[in-house]
């Protein structure tokens, strides 16, 4: 694989990095309404199901099975739910910390859209449990320029575990 | 401790449970206990018919998936003749695991330790140094992979470790009538939408199996947000209406929730409804056409749910169907396997819409699923506490409720849908297995 740098200008790259940090901060501070605003109206948020396969198999991430398969409208359903008093899985809320690293920004065919690749580790602590859930994922975000900021057009995240060791996925990656 | 390794305390608890369960009392301890788990492994999962896979997961010759019965890893594979086989995932030579991936396609399995080669049907056909080492004396026929007895119903592949077990047909005992709503969604039947989600939870498998054998009681509270936001085409006020049915002494149970005024087979595309009018019997149509929620468990640990769900308020709901296996991996600990079943003959648009409804509600990140596991994890934790050793739970709901005389389907039916009747049957069947003489 070539290791050529993509030559996206420093300003764009820095702006995208900061945007991704701000977005994850909104999640960790449970400002889900603010978080939702980071998504374009035509956004797609998806996490495929990972399957342990032999080395030369056609795929390892299922082409049909997904853990999340959301539009902005259904993400809004999830957030509305969290705003009720009956979202028991987040009552009391999970304490999360998103660690976003290894951000690589690449240009796309469209001048105002960029692809941001990143590594994401989410630490989740619930209640008095001393064992946290850890979700390690590769993320690929298609971002569209929106004035001084950015909108997520497509978030794709692939968990590194095939069998997830968490009793539910009531948080966002 | 006795010869079988079960303490007197647990033996006494099980003996008392025989009387208790009929009167509506079930010990909390059964939901998180090492000895109970050991008994389940040795007496229940070693003799019951256990779900392995859906035929649509292995459509082509050579397709395989790796599944479990208790702690036994099993390769379920379609051989070169198109027949389905189940073999222990273990090389017969020194026991190395044959398949390390969850699924794939192979005409042969070659062991990575000393290189024994088996056909995908399990016959041993290749032994390195056969002449030099074994002087050609090893009888290959004797040393094939270990076969697991299997049988199928409407696409479901079940296996049993017990060669003496009754037939699958007898085991299901009439519950097939109810399974058809999940498995014959249209003329071509059902298929999986893709590989299952799976995850591990500190939850006892039985709490989930019970919930899915018809716990309509928890829905308005545990899933209150659904009613509150109006994403759910039913209301709390009429929620208890419908039927609960079980197959006596078999452990299988189903809850059939009704919403008055709901159009027949609401949420299915018209062409599927047409097909179901042909593929289901008149009695099945009578039972299912008015059913909003069909939530059932095949004893011991396979469950299903059909439910209309609208992604967005105001939009008509779409029916999704989930199949789930509550696989026990330790006391109070399980691995969850969850599939979405779709009607094979439906349009791709409908299949996608049903799958979307599944991911948003009952997939791994599903909004209903999340709350269930939150509750079940807490129940499991509570049940493992020493102060709870001698505590019973009440299972008295519907104790005096009469059996419906003119119910069109097989089994023992009561109304309304919200009741413990199915659960009493579930626990007495479970008890039969655990207390059976070896
Ligand atoms: S363990 Fe498989 S060939 Fe020896
Ligand atoms: Fe539930």
TrEMBL record, chain A:
Keyword Cytoplasm: no
Signal peptide limits: none
Keyword Oxidoreductase attributed: yes
Gene3D superfamilies: 3.10.450.50
EC code: 1.14.12.19
Alphabetized Pfam families for the sequence: Ring_hydroxyl_B
InterPro entries on file: NTF2-like_dom_sf, Rng_hydr_dOase-bsu
Keywords: Dioxygenase, Oxidoreductase
GO biological process, alphabetically ordered: 3-phenylpropionate catabolic process
EC class: oxidoreductase
Source superkingdom: Bacteria
GO MF annotation list: 3-phenylpropionate dioxygenase activity
UniProt similarity note: Belongs to the bacterial ring-hydroxylating dioxygenase beta subunit family.
NCBIfam families: PRK10069.1
Protein name: 3-phenylpropionate/cinnamic acid dioxygenase subunit beta
Protein species of origin: Phytoactinopolyspora mesophila
Lineage start: Bacteria, Bacillati, Actinomycetota, Actinomycetes, Jiangellales
């Amino acid at each position: 694989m070539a290791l050529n740098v993509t030559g996206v200008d420093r300003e764009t790259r820095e702006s995208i990095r900061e945007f991704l940090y701000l977005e994850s901060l909104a999640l960790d501070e449970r400002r889900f309404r603010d978080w939702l605003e980071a998504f374009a109206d035509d956004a797609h948020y998806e996490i495929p199901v990972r399957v342990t396969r032999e080395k030369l198999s056609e795929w390892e991430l299922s082409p049909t099975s997904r853990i999340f398969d959301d539009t902005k409208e259904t993400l809004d359903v999830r957030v509305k739910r969290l705003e009720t008093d009956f979202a028991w899985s987040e009552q009391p809320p999970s304490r999360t910390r998103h660690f976003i690293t290894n951000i690589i920004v690449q240009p796309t065919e469209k001048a105002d859209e960029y692809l941001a690749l990143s590594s994401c580790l989410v630490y989740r602590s619930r209640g008095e449990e001393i064992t946290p859930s850890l979700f390690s994922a590769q993320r690929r975000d298609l971002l569209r320029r929106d004035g001084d900021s950015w909108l997520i057009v497509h978030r794709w995240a692939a968990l590194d575990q095939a069998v997830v060791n968490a009793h539910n996925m009531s948080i966002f990656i | 401790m006795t010869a079988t390794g079960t303490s007197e305390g647990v033996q006494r608890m099980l003996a008392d449970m025989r009387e208790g369960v009929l009167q509506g009392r079930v010990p909390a301890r059964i939901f998180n206990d090492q000895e109970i788990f050991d008994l389940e492994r040795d007496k229940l999962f070693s003799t019951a018919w256990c779900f392995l896979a859906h035929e649509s997961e292995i459509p082509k010759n050579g397709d395989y998936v790796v599944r479990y019965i208790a702690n036994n890893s099993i390769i379920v594979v379609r051989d070169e003749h198109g027949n389905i086989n189940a073999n222990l995932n273990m090389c017969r030579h020194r026991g190395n695991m044959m398949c390390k991936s969850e699924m794939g396609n192979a005409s042969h399995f070659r062991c990575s330790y000393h290189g024994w080669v088996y056909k995908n049907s399990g016959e041993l056909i290749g032994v390195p140094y056969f002449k030099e080492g074994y002087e050609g004396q090893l009888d290959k026929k004797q040393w094939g992979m270990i076969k697991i007895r299997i049988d199928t119903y409407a696409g479901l592949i079940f296996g049993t470790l017990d060669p003496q077990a009754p037939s699958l047909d007898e085991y299901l005992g009439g519950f097939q009538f109810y399974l058809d709503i999940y498995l014959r969604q249209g003329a071509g039947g059902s298929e999986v939408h893709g590989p299952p989600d799976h995850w591990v939870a500190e939850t006892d498998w039985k709490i989930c199996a019970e919930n899915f054998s018809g716990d309509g009681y928890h829905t308005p509270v545990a899933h209150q947000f659904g009613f509150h936001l109006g994403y759910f085409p039913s209301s709390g006020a009429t929620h208890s209406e419908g039927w609960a049915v079980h197959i006596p002494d078999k452990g299988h149970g189903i809850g059939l929730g009704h919403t008055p005024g709901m159009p027949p087979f609401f949420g299915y595309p018209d062409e599927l409804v047409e097909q179901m009018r042909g593929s289901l019997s008149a009695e099945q149509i009578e039972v299912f056409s008015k059913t909003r929620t069909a939530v059932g468990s095949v004893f011991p640990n396979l469950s299903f749910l059909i439910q209309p769900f609208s992604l967005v308020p105001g939009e008509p709901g779409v029916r999704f169907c989930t199949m789930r296996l509550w696989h026990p991996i330790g006391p109070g600990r399980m691995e969850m396997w969850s599939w979405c079943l779709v009607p094979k003959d439906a349009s791709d648009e409908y299949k996608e819409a049903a799958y979307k409804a599944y991911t948003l509600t009952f997939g791994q990140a599903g909004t209903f699923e999340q709350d269930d596991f939150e509750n079940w994890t807490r129940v499991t934790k509570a049940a493992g506490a020493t102060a709870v050793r001698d505590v019973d739970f009440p299972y008295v709901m519907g104790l005096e409720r009469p059996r419906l005389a003119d119910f069109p389907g097989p089994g023992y039916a009561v109304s309304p849908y919200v009741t413990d009747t199915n659960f009493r049957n579930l626990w007495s069947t479970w008890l039969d297995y655990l207390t059976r003489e070896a």
